């Protein structure tokens, strides 16, 4: 679906040095968006910048029609987004793309802004089915830990600097957890190196793994070919249309 919805912003607050949490009243998107999909957002009024930016929702409140997006300031578009205030209107296309498979016992792994779709998946998963690992550079980047629902089995933290949780990377914890034999699938989103190593660990353990690509996009509808990734069969896939969620065995990471 690629329908337009415009709604008021409820909050747009800084949650770390370079990250913001935006909540908007978007009732249709709150009902129809599923974990793994993305929304294509106009980051300012008017036509400058011309191109929308893709964001993975981090949570939805279906009852109250709210959609949450956590974003990192990385350029002009996201810098303009930080200037949006409560009651300003936000212009959103979506939902777009493929979804995570939420069934069985799941190990969910997220890093950086890739934690957003993992949080959404954890929110929507059945109680007692998800164990989550999230990683960041420091304690400050793991503000996410306060957002995860009580319905997950466990939330494991890792930091590059050792300021909270395991001193190291999210993938460090994956092999031992998969060796327990209790997981039916792995879901992962984050930097490519994280997804590559998590996918390799899942393959070694014989556990299916889904990865969600983060890509710069132009049109977001499959027309411009700006967001392609490589498949292992030698073909290419449009992340905005055939992804962003892929079986890790099908794509080159």
From TrEMBL:
GO terms for molecular function: 2 iron, 2 sulfur cluster binding; electron transfer activity; flavin adenine dinucleotide binding; metal ion binding; oxidoreductase activity. Its cofactor is [2Fe-2S] cluster; FAD. Binds 1 [2Fe-2S] cluster per subunit. SUPFAM superfamilies: Ferredoxin reductase-like, C-terminal NADP-linked domain (SSF52343), Riboflavin synthase domain-like (SSF63380). FAD binds at residues 53-56, 70-72, 77-78. It comes from the Bacteria. Keywords: 2Fe-2S, Electron transport, FAD, Flavoprotein, Iron, Iron-sulfur, Metal-binding, Pyrimidine biosynthesis, Transport. Pathway: Pyrimidine metabolism; UMP biosynthesis via de novo pathway; orotate from (S)-dihydroorotate (NAD(+) route): step 1/1. InterPro entries: Cbr1-like_FAD-bd_dom, Cyt_c3_hydrogenase_gsu, Dihydroorotate_DH_ele_sf, Dihydroorotate_DH_Fe-S-bd, Dihydroorotate_DHASE_ETsu, FAD-bd_FR_type, FNR_nucleotide-bd, PyrK_electron_transfer. Residues 2-102 form the FAD-binding FR-type domain. Signal peptide: none annotated. [2Fe-2S] cluster binds at residues 219, 224, 227, 240. It holds the Pfam family FAD_binding_6. One of its GO terms (biological process) is 'de novo' UMP biosynthetic process. Belongs to the PyrK family. Responsible for channeling the electrons from the oxidation of dihydroorotate from the FMN redox center in the PyrD type B subunit to the ultimate electron acceptor NAD(+). PANTHER family: DIHYDROOROTATE DEHYDROGENASE B (NAD(+)), ELECTRON TRANSFER SUBUNIT (PTHR43513), DIHYDROOROTATE DEHYDROGENASE B (NAD(+)), ELECTRON TRANSFER SUBUNIT-RELATED (PTHR43513:SF3). Heterotetramer of 2 PyrK and 2 PyrD type B subunits. This is Dihydroorotate dehydrogenase B (NAD(+)), electron transfer subunit. It comes from Negativicoccus succinicivorans. The lineage of its organism: Bacteria, Bacillati, Bacillota, Negativicutes, Veillonellales. The gene is pyrK.
